[in-house]
UniProtKB/TrEMBL annotation:
InterPro entries: AB_hydrolase_1 (IPR000073), AB_hydrolase_fold (IPR029058). The keyword Nucleotide-binding does not apply. The chain crosses the membrane at residues 12-34. The gene is yhfR. Residues 119-273 form the AB hydrolase-1 domain. This is AB hydrolase-1 domain-containing protein. PANTHER family: ALPHA/BETA HYDROLASE DOMAIN-CONTAINING PROTEIN, PROTEIN ABHD13. Keywords: Membrane, Transmembrane, Transmembrane helix.
Length: 395
């Protein structure tokens, strides 16, 4: 029995992942109208500009530019006079101009997708946009997209295709909106963390560093989440999937597409000159257990030292930089020199998706942007520099 238990647990995750994904995706497909009416979600009139951009492989991606409410308030009358709905040319909008021309504007590129976040307007996503950008003095804009095959975007989702979309969104920000990468945070939740990890690795290879990378409720790789499982085995349970070929394709291609986030994030850490990586998870996440974030953290931390270290040493060093925040929750801050900082936070509440709207995610963004105390990450007395600690512990 004991030997079977992990197998059941994995089957359980696979099932939960599958069912929630499929419900969300069907809801999304059924409700494209919702995304055309952002006010429906409590945003101010024209606070969101829907627009399209094209990927290098010619898919049309539907996107939202969400402007911060504080900034909106200062330009309300001008913004109200603008046409609503899909912008033919977003560069002509006031919101876009404010994003591009303000040297203090910042941008979060949100790629929480598609497992339980089928479209820009799905689930907790709209609430999360508000919690990220509503501070009265906030100048944090948000870019959110419907990945190919979802919502109002064209195409068919595959691992390669979704990464292409994530990269295209960042390219739009860098080249069209002309926001420098050190004022951009890329953020993903759930399966979106796999896209975000790949996008982070992609730009690290090009020598481009972001203000921060935030992974919420992530996992080390799909193979580790669902090892040895033929997704097809679950299709009788998920038979309505069969009527939606694009979803069926994504779903069954998942085991072909491995989504190796832990090794991608390790590459990202290794290749980047500057790292601000935030790994967040709620203890009560029943879809992807928080222990998956432990694996992401270990891979990232391991990549800060030449040649890496064994798990025991890593655990010892991590323990020395971990602040116990009660009820089994904690914050670990791993520093390698001044330039690479990895922060893992396990919070008590937030489940799998709702946590996106919680303070911990906004706080990570503020820290990444240097909008926290002293414009730097907190230096707790417990914080130990990984390099010197490493030398100390092995000597
Ligand atoms: C945006 O894309 C949608 C399809 O996804 C299309 O119907 C619409 O015409 C496009 N609009 C522009 C301005 O390209
Ligand atoms: C750290 O990386 C090294 C070299 O890549 C590897 O041999 C080691 O197993 C890794 N340690 C952990 C804890 O992942």
């Amino acid at each position: 029995m004991a030997a079977l238990a992990p197998v059941f647990r994995k089957a359980y995750w696979a099932l939960i992942l599958g069912v929630s994904f499929y419900i969300a995706a069907l809801t999304a497909l059924a409700n494209p109208w919702l995304q055309r009416h952002p006010e429906q979600f409590g945003f101010a009139k024209n606070q969101i500009t829907p627009f399209n951009f094209t990927t290098p492989d010619h898919e049309t991606i539907y996107a939202w530019h969400v402007m911060p409410l504080g900034l909106y308030a200062k330009h309300e009358s001008e913004i109200l006079q603008q046409p609503s709905g899909l912008a033919d040319d977003i560069t002509q909008t006031t919101a876009f101009r404010l994003l591009r021309d303000d040297p203090d504007s910042r941008l979060i590129i949100n790629s929480d997708l598609p497992q339980n976040a089928g479209t820009v307007a799905q689930g907790w996503r709209t609430d999360s946009y508000r919690s990220l950008s509503d501070g009265s003095s906030s100048n944090i804009h948000i870019l959110a997209i419907d990945y190919r095959g979802f919502g109002l975007s064209t195409g068919f989702p595959t691992e390669e295709g979704l990464i292409t979309d994530g990269v295209a969104a960042v390219d739009w920000a860098l080249q069209v909106a002309k926001v420098p990468s050190d004022r951009i945070v890329i953020l993903g939740q759930s399966l979106g963390t796999a896209v975000t990890s790949a996008v982070a690795e992609h730009y690290a290879m090009k020598g481009i560093n972001f203000a921060g990378v935030v992974l919420v409720a992530g996992f080390t790789s799909l193979a580790e989440l669902l090892p040895g499982y033929s997704i097809a085995g679950y299709l009788p349970v998920l038979s309505p999937l069969k009527s939606t070929p694009a979803i069926l394709e994504l779903f069954s291609s998942k085991l072909v597409d491995k989504w190796p986030s832990a090794s991608r994030i390790a590459n990202f850490v290794r290749m980047s000159k500057r790292v601000r990586l935030f790994i967040l998870h709620a203890k009560d996440d029943y879809e992807i257990p928080w222990t998956q974030s432990e694996g992401l953290f270990a891979a990232a931390a391991n990549a800060t030292t030449e040649g890496g270290m064994d798990l025991e040493l890593l655990r010892k060093m991590k323990a020395r930089t971990t602040v116990d925040t009660g009820d089994g929750t904690f914050i670990s801050t791993w520093k390698a020199g001044e330039n690479k900082i990895i922060r893992q936070e396990v919070v008590a509440y937030g489940h799998h998706s709702r946590v996106l709207t919680y303070a911990t995610v906004s706080l990570a963004a503020l820290k990444a942007f240097g909008l926290d105390e002293g414009g730097a990450l907190p230096v707790s007395s417990l914080e130990v520099d990984a390099e010197s600690d490493y030398n100390h512990l092995i000597l």
